[in-house]
Amino acid sequence: MTPIWRTTLTLAGAATLSVSIAHAQTPDLSEPPAIDGDVVGDHGSVTLRMGIGLAETSPQYLSSQYFADILDQRSEGRISVNIFPNSQLGDDVQMMEMLQTGSLDMTYPSSSPATTYVEELAVFDLPFLLPTREAAIAVLNSEVAQSMLDGFDGTGIKALAFSENGFRQLSNSAREVASPEDVAGLDVRGLSVRTMENPVHLSIWETLGANPTPMAFGELFSAMEQGVVDGQENPWSTILTSNFHEVQDYGSETRHVYTPFIKMISERTWDRLDAEYQELIQEAALQAAEYEIQLATEYDDWSRNQLEERGMQITRLDDDQIAAFQEAVQPVYDEWAPRIGEDLVAEIQQIVEDTMND
Ligand code: TK8
């Protein structure tokens, strides 16, 4: 499945020539870690249906395959996972609701739309809170993060593990963006930007003078293609593996938010499983999350370079330019930090600081 770029060259006085340029579909990726650990006892056959938002080339999908492989091998084929990519079963919000009713077993949404279940997760939506991947991972591994996962208890959803979606970058089809003023558009209208279904994200883009529209991820490509919105923000790997460059000319390396993914299972499904199967699924979720972070890391800059190669104009922002964005979104902190909890924000900031001082 090599993606092919078809370019039509018209040679003077000659027939039209169609040239295909093959692009690598993935970077050089680490092999998944060897699967070890005992085979679990026979507690019957189980098939888990798992819906995800992203495409088959994404770290989200590739790590989900690894998750499925661990369960397959360590149960001698008794636990199988069917992965449904590309939001084909629904978007993040819908799939979480399906977990609650038991009509879907597993999903892997961003934390942002999950704030309706666990409000504290909104701390991840605060702009420029997590400056480096190292800091982000330290937060994901912290006790305070674990208590957010525990916060799902009783919602009908069991949250198994955090993983990485990644640093979000702005893309759009209207103009180059290097400053908050470019977002707001001084002489022209502000950019219309699709956001995740999350109030902090709405607030970020409103504050920057954009015209934000919350929308399901699965509807985004055609919304951009039809010009319903000018742009969106997601990690480079998502922009690439979702082919957004086909409908987006400009990218800006804003890194304005780092959002995690959360691997989830329906409590109805969970409660039906034997304890030994539960333990295996929990362990596999953590191993797959770790592998995904590695894949996402390998994808990140590579994806940006691929996008550039495929014709997207990418604007890299220097420290001063990032600082200008940071300053512009300060009102988002003033509004949201008290609502999310000043103590929680301070606790996360402390973890970040500790990683910077190491
Ligand atoms: C995929 C989503 C997506 C997220 C978004 O299901 O909605 O923009 O970043 O990747 O979780």
From TrEMBL:
Coiled coil: none
BP-aspect Gene Ontology terms: transmembrane transport
Entry's Gene Ontology cellular component terms: outer membrane-bounded periplasmic space
InterPro entries: DctP_fam, TRAP_DctP, TRAP_DctP_sf
Signal peptide start-end: 1-24
Top-rank taxon, per record: Bacteria
Keywords assigned by UniProt, alphabetized: Receptor, Signal, Transport
NCBIfam families reported in the protein's UniProt record: dctP, TRAP_S1
Family note: Belongs to the bacterial solute-binding protein 7 family.
PANTHER family: C4-DICARBOXYLATE-BINDING PROTEIN DCTB, PTHR33376
Designated name of the protein: Tripartite ATP-independent transporter solute receptor, DctP family
Organism: Franzmannia pantelleriensis
